[in-house]
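Action item from last meeting closed. Structure (289 res):
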């Protein structure tokens, strides 16, 4: 089987993990860099995204697509033109569904969370009890990872009462459409914070995101909020002893490298989980599981 890895925005972890996943399943891939200076002529010649994907699927079995326009991947996948599966690898500031899946798996695996499905109990030696309190920290406005994660956690079969704490600078708060979606699910409670120290009290998960410089229209606005939150050893000393720290990566300066040696820092384990979760996704889609 052949995977089309099509990225109109830069990617390291998502593209490489999908490519590695396909190869580990015995398949191969072709990679298309659709960004500026990339290896494709399609967009430079004015070809529509739909036509590009329809052409590529003539050579492949499944497409992984990242595009800077919100809703673009859904439009291509559900517009009626494509005949083979299209996986959303991130659409601008919209969604990142496979990241949400690997993040949820990581939480389940690290904390021993129980799911109300067959085989939903984690094999982790420790089992989580009580509320599941998850802090989403940083650039919640532009962070497609937290948009998808909040939605998936809210609608998942987690047996525990879910508390989502949003901690962001005033200009980078969680979008209202995400909060409105979460409100639909009675098991999910939402809280707003601006003080990171207060937000992590009693928390089980601290999910950190970087302030996305590339999403700002001018540098002045970015300078106002960059470095608003920094997770360092001082914060970790005051945080719960069993609180895990996650990050979709890349990081800039929002997590000190001193935290890397803390066993609660699981962002690199999270990255490895990404490959295995994407192997499962591809196997399910291609009918090999």
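Sequence:
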């Amino acid at each position: 089987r052949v995977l089309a890895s099509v990225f109109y925005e830069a990617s390291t972890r998502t593209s490489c993990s999908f490519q590695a996943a396909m190869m580990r399943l015995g398949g191969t891939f072709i990679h298309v860099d659709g960004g500026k200076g990339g290896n494709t002529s399609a967009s430079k010649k004015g070809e529509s995204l739909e036509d590009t994907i329809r052409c590529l699927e003539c050579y492949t079995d499944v497409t992984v697509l990242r595009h800077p326009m919100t809703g673009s991947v859904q439009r291509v996948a559900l517009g009626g033109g494509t005949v083979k599966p299209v996986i959303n690898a991130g659409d601008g500031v919209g969604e990142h569904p496979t990241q949400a899946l690997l993040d949820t798996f990581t939480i389940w695996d690290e904390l021993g969370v129980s799911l109300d499905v067959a085989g939903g109990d984690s094999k982790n030696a420790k089992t989580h009890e009580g509320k599941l309190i998850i802090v989403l920290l940083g650039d919640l406005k532009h962070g497609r990872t937290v948009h998808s994660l909040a939605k998936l956690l809210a609608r998942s079969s987690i047996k525990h009462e879910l508390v989502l704490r949003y901690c962001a600078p005033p200009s980078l708060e969680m979008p209202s459409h995400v909060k409105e979606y979460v409100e639909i699910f009675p098991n999910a409670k939402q809280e707003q914070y601006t003080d990171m120290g207060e937000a992590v009290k009693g928390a089980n998960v601290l999910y950190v995101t970087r302030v996305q410089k590339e999403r700002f229209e001018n540098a002045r606005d970015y300078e106002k909020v960059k470095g608003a939150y920094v997770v360092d050893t001082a914060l970790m000393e005051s945080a719960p002893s069993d609180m895990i720290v996650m990050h979709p990566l890349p990081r800039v300066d929002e997590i000190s490298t001193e935290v890397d040696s803390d066993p609660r820092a699981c962002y690199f384990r999270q990255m490895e989980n990404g490959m295995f979760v994407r192997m499962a996704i591809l196997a399910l889609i291609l009918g090999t599981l």
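Note appended to the action item: The mean pLDDT is 91.
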